[in-house]
Amino acid sequence: xxxRILQLAGLLLLFASCSRNxxxxxxxxxxxxxxxxxxxxTNVSAPRIQPDDxxxxxxxxxxxxxxxxxxxxxxxxxxxxxxxxGVSSQSTDGYLVDSAGYIRFPVLGKxxxxxxxxxxxxxxxxxxxxxxxxxxxxxxxxxxxxVTVIGEVRNPSTFTVESExxxxxxxxxxxxxxxxYGKRENxxxxxxxxxxxxxxxxxLNSRNLLNSPYFYLQQNDVIYVEAVKARGYAxxxxxxxxxxxxxxxxxxxxxxxxxxx
Length: 261
Hints:
CATH topology of the largest domain: Outer membrane lipoprotein wza fold like
Strand content: 15-25%
Number of helices: 7
CATH architecture of the largest domain: Roll
CATH class of the largest domain: Alpha Beta
Radius of gyration: 27 Å
Mean pLDDT: 79
Order of helices and strands: HEHEEEEEHEEEHEEEHHH
Number of domains: 2
Number of strands: 12
CATH superfamily of the largest domain: Outer membrane lipoprotein wza domain like
Shape: elongated
Distance between the termini: 12 Å
Helix content: 25-40%
């Protein structure tokens, strides 16, 4: 009897060591709660224009005869043209921000927009156009605002989105969410901004994520979900059968012990 109890305790320890927390925003020692929690959103930051961005710029004014002149968008590579180092066969009307941060705009010539938010770029263009148009109104949006989600998700891919207010959870949802092998407590976010690359580890089990400056994504962010060690065992046919072999050995041992008494 003591042998059976010892064996059962060993199996329980084995399963406990393999258990993982798969619930978002719940630390291992923090129970899930249904209490309503309301707080102000203060960590949204407007994306800034970067080299290789493609911008749609539309101009309207009280001078309709001149509007056409400033709406001659150039042909730039399509939203998929930058990914993977390849060249897209598609193209779109937009202004490509060159490596120095400039676009070439009709009449105005070269304009430096890198480092500006959309609102700041709009203000700069409207001020410059006042010399040529009556009450100009400028609308700018990103044509290749994209993020990449790879690793232990169900649908790893690069996603081009229309909204610049994209958060980490939405991006993971677009990728089909994490698999059971994804490390929720150690997701890597790679970001390039202003010529600087940062690599940040994010814990999806922590409620502090909602207030993190990395909760809302920037264009060209890369999210990498690392796999737990169990993924390696599952991918290896020999290791994958270890739990079955252990269970079989345990069953044979119990039967042998019972019939040998």
